[in-house]
Design brief:
Number of helices: 10
Strand order of the largest sheet: 5-6-7-3-8-9
CATH architecture of the largest domain: 3-Layer(aba) Sandwich
CATH superfamily of the largest domain: P-loop containing nucleotide triphosphate hydrolases
Radius of gyration: 23 Å
Largest sheet: 6 strands, mixed
CATH topology of the largest domain: Rossmann fold
CATH class of the largest domain: Alpha Beta
Length: 294
Amino acid sequence: MTSLATLAGVTRRYGDLTALDDVSIDIADGQILGLLGPNGAGKTTLLSLLAGLIRPTRGTVRLFGRDPRDASARQHLGTTPQQTALPETLRVREVIDFVGGHFAERIPTVELAEEFGLAELLTRQTGALSGGQKRRLSVALAFVGRPKLVLLDEPTTGLDIDGRRVLWDAIRRQREGGASIVVTSHYLEEIEQLAERVAVIAGGRVVADDDLATVIGSVGTRWASLVSPEAARIAALPQVAGSRIDGDRVELSLRDADAFVRDLVATGASFIELQLRSATLEEAFLSIVRGEGA
């Protein structure tokens, strides 16, 4: 795959605060990369570096092989920050036309509006849009110039579930049309739905970076639930990494599911409703940021 952007040994400090600490990451053509991390982990700082809004304290950032602070490097970049301000007196059509006018090759206004569910709003002033409609317009504007790389910081904040799914479908179609995308989100379901690759940032460092299935599997655990009058005894078995007990019902994270079942049977404890399942992205994410991942 062709590399579109890279961070190599990048550290970014704000006074005494280190937002990113010796981060190296490569963003390849042809994929959606999901960036995950707790609040303050450094996700927005990483996107700001790629967009040329700030410079690294140490290390190198490249966008299409050039310094991202060079305007020519950003000709094929689209961005939607966490918060955007739209001119309230301009109509949706006028805003799309204005932004699109900065690009030599652009998506026609009506086509873009239809793609992002804005066709019925083209004549409406942006000040009269709902919060969700404004967010959809902000994301749509990131794609108007047919960018090769798009940075989306919390793109569906403020949207209801139907609005999020409309946006997910539009983002997928843009990906199929050739755009590569980096997306941050607090909605882990969103990353599961969109991303082919996931990078987890914690404490300013990249602590996991691989395809979605590998990141989920990297924690090396499975989850079990069962009902037993001896829940506390079962939770103390050696293959149990963590537990939550509610009366006779117990939920367990397991180091080795097969070994756990053997140990469970060997105890002779009575139990019913045993269920085993693989980790979700949320569970894998929590294990990784807590330092429990493999």
